[in-house]
């Protein structure tokens, strides 16, 4: 994997490595589609399993984005595992300024 060849100084910044994006547990016909939950940051940080993710999805709205998309609210996936777990290489990334570790 490309991320493994990078040092801890560098990491890929995209929806794929973002704390607030994940794949749908229901699957998707769109290749590389991720669900963005930046509007639900606090709730998103409580998701650490598939069961948590199903409960989290109830009555939530989201934006669909491609894995390679990068927005201004990117945050490395280093505080909660989400549905698919942590992304190797982002665990040692610092949290964005103004956001402490949960």
Helical residues, percent: 10-25%
Spatially, the strands of the biggest sheet line up as 1-2-3
- Give the overall average pLDDT: 80
Order of helices and strands: HEEHHE
> What gross morphology would you assign?
globular
Q: Count helical runs.
A: 3
Content-based structural category: alpha+beta
Strand content: 5-15%
Number of strands: 3
Intertermini distance: 28 Å
Would you identify the regions where 5 or more consecutive residues have pLDDT less than 50? none
The major sheet is characterized as: 3 strands, antiparallel
- Measured on Cα atoms, how large is the radius of gyration? 13 Å
How would you portray this structure in words?
It is a single chain. It contains three helices and three strands. It has 102 residues and is of the alpha+beta class. It has a three-stranded antiparallel β-sheet, with no helix packed on it. The longest helix is centred in the middle third of the chain and has 8 residues, at 50-57. The chain starts with a helix and ends in a 36-residue tail after the last strand. The model has no long low-confidence stretch (mean pLDDT 80).
